[in-house]
Design goal:
By secondary structure, the chain is mainly beta. It has 2 domains: 174 residues, AttH-like domain (AttH-like fold, Beta Barrel), CATH 2.40.370; 145 residues, AttH-like fold (Beta Barrel), CATH 2.40.370.10. Helix content is 2%, strand content 62%. The chain has 1 helix and 22 strands. The strands form 2 sheets. Strands 13, 14, 15, 16, 17, 18, 19, 20, 21 and 22 form a 10-stranded antiparallel sheet that branches. Strand 19 and strand 20 form a beta hairpin. The longest helix has 7 residues.
């Protein structure tokens, strides 16, 4: 497998002819002292003339401040849409995130399962974000020049990730929060629809500057799929080719959400393995809908859980557990994993 990654990949790529071409960047961060977490994403879809902009702040008192927009995006010249801007200061080393706009503040983030109701029945405040991100780990990933995804299952031609430190301020109305913590960022480009995977699990976490991880499980509709990720431990980067995960879900008749996670991520290349357990502290469910090839409406749920991670040796870290599921009969299809 030949992977290409150059400093120029930190910048924008020429859009392909595919209607679903997407180029996106994503950042998350958690500050254990202030107990504030956040993630930010801009996805350009220039061939569709639109973008996807997400801002989410998990506040220390349990509230979640959130915004999703689909602004007009006619070109792929920068990540600057809907008030959210990303700037590359030095490739692979330093980036900036800025947001000026509004956020809806949710006492119960699960209300976002019904977005229209959540946006109309909760208060909206002016918000400002200024965060500087800097390198913690080496880069992971790039553009695979050999493998081709099956038609209809394209999700990212190029994709890389990096553990980072983030610091700055987040202002919501008359509240200001200082942030100094750790997180992960990613950058991807190529054809993408949220309906391409049957389901996926994407776990990210940091325990200070000395430990961090990413575990990925992507399932296909007809079985199989991919598992892998990386662990950064004691200054060493370990490429991982095995990733097992078990989930404890909320109970009840309504749509279920992940609450507890047990994961084992391992590298046969280095004969190392890490046991990690997760406790979801807060969760917000996001929704994407797209018409399928047969004209039916496909509903995808992306549950974003702010998560406390505990390693088998007692180290504690924080990050995000992102669960994407196609929804069939009002339930996520990946309940078995």
């Amino acid at each position: 497998m030949k992977i290409r990654l150059e400093p120029t990949d930190e910048y924008m790529h020429d859009p392909e002819d595919d209607a679903t071409f997407n180029e996106s960047m994503y950042f998350n961060v958690y500050d254990p002292e202030s107990r504030l977490g956040a993630f930010f994403r801009v996805g350009n879809r220039p061939n569709e003339g639109t973008g996807e902009v997400t801002v989410c702040c998990y506040l220390p008192d349990g509230r979640v401040a959130f915004m999703f927009k689909r602004p007009e995006v006619a070109t792929n010249e920068s990540f600057d849409a809907g008030g959210l801007r990303f700037e590359v200061v030095e490739p692979f080393e330093s980036l900036r995130v800025a947001y000026d706009g509004s956020l809806v503040v949710l006492d119960d983030p699960l209300e976002m399962a019904d977005p229209k109701r959540a946006f109309t029945e909760n208060p909206v405040v002016k918000a400002s974000v200024r965060l500087d991100y800097s390198k913690v780990s080496p880069m992971f990933g790039g553009e695979n020049e050999d493998a081709k995804e099956r038609p209809g299952e394209e999700f990212a031609k190029g994709h890389y990730e990096q553990l980072v430190a983030g610091s700055g301020t987040i202002t919501l109305g008359d509240e200001e929060f200082r942030v100094s913590g750790y997180g992960l960022r990613d950058h991807s480009w190529g054809p993408r629809t949220w309906q391409a995977p049957w389901y996926y699990r994407w776990l990210t976490g940091n325990a200070g500057a000395d430990f961090g991880f990413m575990g990925s499980r992507v399932a296909r509709r007809d079985g199989g799929g991919t598992r892998g990720g990386f662990v950064f431990d004691g200054g060493e980067m370990y490429l991982c080719d095995r990733f097992e995960i078990a989930t404890t879900w909320s109970t009840g008749a309504s749509a279920r959400f992940h609450e507890q996670i047990s994961a084992r991520i391992s590298s046969t290349f280095h004969d190392r393995a890490w046991e990690i357990s997760g406790r979801v502290m807060r969760l917000i469910p996001l929704r994407n809908r797209r018409e399928g090839a047969d004209g039916s409406l496909m509903v995808t749920r992306i549950s974003e859980g702010l998560t406390e991670w505990t390693l088998s040796d007692g180290r504690v870290g924080y990050g995000l557990s992102e669960y994407l599921d196609q929804i069939v009969d009002d339930q996520p299809v990946g309940l078995a994993e």
